[in-house]
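Newbie here. two chains, one complex. Structure please?
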Amino acid sequence: MVGQRLLRPAAQLLRSSPSALPRCSFQKVSAPAAASRWRTYATPSGTKEMTVRDALNEAMAEEMEKNDKVFVLGEEVAQYNGAYKVTKGLLDRFGEKRVIDSPITESGFAGLTVGAALAGLHPVCEFMTFNFAMQAIDQIINSAAKTHYMSGGIQPCNITFRGPNGFASGVGAQHSQDYSAWYGSIPGLKVVAPYSAEDAKGLLKAAIRDPNPVCVLENELLYGLSFPMSVEAQSDDFVIPFGKAKIERPGKDITIVTLSRCVGQSLVAAEILKSKYGVEAEVINLRSIKPLDVEAIVKSVKKTGHMMAVESGFPSFGVGAEIIALTAEYAFDYLDAPPIRVTGAEVPTPYAQKLEEMAFPSEQLIADYAAKLLKV
Amino acid sequence: MSDHVTRVVLTVRSVHFPGAVNSKFTSSLSFSRASEDDAMPTYRILDQEGRIIDQSQAPPDISTDLLLKMYKDMVTVSIMDIIMFDAQRQGRISFYMVSAGEEGIAVGSASSLTNRDPMFAQYRETGIFQYRGFTPADFMAQLFATKDDPIKGRSMPVHYGSHKHNIHAISSTLATQIPHAAGAAYAVKLQDMQNPTDERRVVACYFGEGAASEGDFHAALNIAATRSCPVLFICRNNGFAISTPTLEQYRGDGIASRGVGYGIDTIRVDGNDILAVREVTRRARELALKDGCRPVLIEAMSYRVSHHSTSDDSFAYRAKVEVEDWKRRDNPITRLRKYMESQGLWDESKEKELRSEARKQILEAYRKAEKEKHPAVANMMTDVYESVTEEQREQMEKLKKLVERYPDEYDLSGYEGGSSGLKLPGVRVG
């Protein structure tokens, strides 16, 4: 264990809770409910505050309780409770046969879990971050995504790959990359990116139950944020169907289509737009990247006539590019202005704080571009 | 040296570093290295002439029927290989790979496993399919991608797979099956714990010595050892990875030495001696299920008599005479034949009959499959996901309209159901 920690200095840094990190430029963002993020008591309406981390944990615990084919495997998921504490308490509850620490070998344990899925189990394969899953991408794409098809439909591969993805804070280029577009382009895979605690629980549970291989792209900076959980979402039967986006904020002037942590940023940007320009932005949280809810986008664009895609990946061939292409294909006639995208910069993520800030969308930047698009 | 000093030295003679609990201290500095002199021995029962080497040991415990089946299976595969290699040369199929020289490893190891033991193959193990009951028609359905192909014409030739025979579909990407096998072994172990009345299973995993250079090999062995997975890693060391000879593939004592390095019970066996392969696999299977389960590595030595595949001409990198020498010197088929002849179980007339019968059956299946229709066109889109997606339905509808509008441009008569095969299955529930 000591060796593992020494070998991954950056991951070690990431382990401390986000609020303990000295750089806070990214933490101030996100959940409008963030004011009450440390409270977890129930309100009279029955809603409860819950962190994304706890929601993911609850999702896995409930699914493991329900189905003994489900098990969790990854680096440090058992004894250490997970690099980001997402698997906390699962070892004590389900034992070492179902919560398994792996040696440091992404291709190996991803391959092992794919093999277990091909043999009929329902593994949850945790990557310490999706950046490290690059070592295992052949197993995810060539084996997990294609085997059902190539075997003539006789070998389902019910596996969930999960872990933090996308921008993190202060950990440089090799720990802050967004893989949504990579996995989103593969037939045979399903890909989801939760934003809130409800998203996290409902999408992860759906992923574990789904008979296909699913990548659950979480975000490290969201783990510690609290969100309200409705009574419905607190139930152990709560799942969110794939391919259905959520309108996080209704509006009539511009459609902002976004995902993962950028949802929170876009919501803040929408408030800026309202207070500064009196503009009502509609913010769509995609939730699911593959399948993608084209209908929700088209419906919104019909109403607003303006479309902006916001994501943290690199600009070329990205999720934003796909959303704009689909909008052009299905809703071109409803557009009053050319659609635009706000994305991460076309550079490997820099380490220096100020440079890093400039490499990703900020709330102000999103608001400014929306204002420019609307000519207000 | 005073008594006091001696005692101190004695008490700290062995170390307890967490990473090497029983390592002893030494004051002599030397680097360890495997040399050719201490190479792991190669186990065999029969010599090249098919004679039992150690007469003092009990003769192989094997029924005459099984012995004959093993021989027939090897011969059948070798005949099919010749026919299908030529079929590729004639342009009837796109690709083929033969197992010449290595039939004994596949058939011999399969004979020591139960039919419920899941198998993961690389691509040069046609013998395991033959042993588990693939008929010539089954092989031809896959090779010609006919409507009877259980994998629906989606994979290259020789990438067989069969749920019925518990053999997983073959993956072209090298060595990915090795961690899969470790994972399947873990699953099998859990399943067998949950159903204690069922006969316990192991997983068999085949790969070549070239694939053992891939990271997946190392990851899989390490993880199988640390998680105590009941898996038999069966390495076919045939001397070549396409054109790369073993001398350039690795230093050290073959693949076997790596098993030892990972703390895995390991044995090296003469792959041309099918009885030795069978015995080694039988004992390895017992070992894998002992106590809390464990992996076992078998390095089966052989020589790749054939070209790597139909895309390769091996005489560009090795002398034809070398290959001819090997063919003459040693071969799993001739060795078993010599043994059976010495036991009075086989003779020239039986040999002729077997060969002509096998050839006849294969050619019959070949001709039939060649004329057979391909899978229905809808199979292009099904099984990408467990259920057909809405987008796929829309695309299939569009395709159908297009085909119906331009029937002369799209001749679907070669596909099962013709244009009515452009229909996706109904929405599945659950």
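Moderator note: The interface with chain B takes residues 68, 71, 97, 100, 102-103, 105, 107-121, 123, 135, 138-139, 142-143, 147-156, 187-188, 190, 210-212, 291 of chain A (CB under 8 Å). Residues 1-39 of chain A have pLDDT under 50 and may be disordered. Thread marked as resolved.
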